[in-house]
Amino acid sequence: MNNLIHHNLQNNDDENGNICNNLSEMEKQVLFLAALNKSNKQISLINESLGIRKTDYNTIKALMSQRIYKKLNVGSLDKAVVRAIETKQLDKIPESLLNYLLKDFYLIETKKDCISI
């Protein structure tokens, strides 16, 4: 039993035994924002406004259909989100997104004492 669990964790199998390739941080970030019902254009604007990288909305569309869907072995956004959750690839806010959101702030002892660097 332990070998089976270890095998599933190593290969990132879903519960049906389908192997899913690991998503990059950028792919997780895009899928996370898409799961929040953001359009490709909105995702592009969010990335740009956060200073992550300037990415055209057509690039976001291609990233979804040509990389994320293929890596997760699915054909739609809904299925991609479910598969990413099942394989624990989308189980929290992507670290890359948090890093950009919080990079200019340094938390002191209490939440109200948040200052900009």
User: In sequence order, what are the helices and strands, one letter per element?
Assistant: HHHHHHEE
Strand portion, in percent? Answer: 5-15%
Per DSSP E runs of 2 or more residues, the count of β-strands stands at: 2
Q: Find the structural class using helix and strand composition.
A: mainly alpha
Uncertain ranges: 1-11, 106-111
Give the termini separation.
50 Å
| Gross geometry | globular
What's the Cα radius of gyration? 17 Å
Folded structure, characterized:
The structure is a single chain. The chain is mainly alpha-helical and 117 residues long. The protein is 56% helix and 5% strand. The chain contains six helices and two strands; from the N terminus they run H-H-H-H-H-H-E-E. A two-stranded antiparallel sheet has the order 1-2. A hairpin with a 6-residue loop joins strand 1 and strand 2. Helix 2 crosses helix 5, helix 3 crosses helix 4 and helix 4 crosses helix 5. The N terminus is likely disordered.
Question: Care to give the gist of this entry?
Answer:
The chain has 117 residues and is mostly helical. Helices cover 56% and strands 5% of the residues. Strands 1-2 form a two-stranded antiparallel ribbon.
Q: What key attributes describe this structure?
A:
6 helices, mainly alpha
Strand and helix layout:
Layout: H1 2-11, H2 25-35, H3 40-50, H4 57-72, H5 77-86, H6 95-102, E1 105-107, E2 114-116
Antiparallel strand pairs: 1-2
Helix pairs in contact: 2-5, 3-4, 4-5
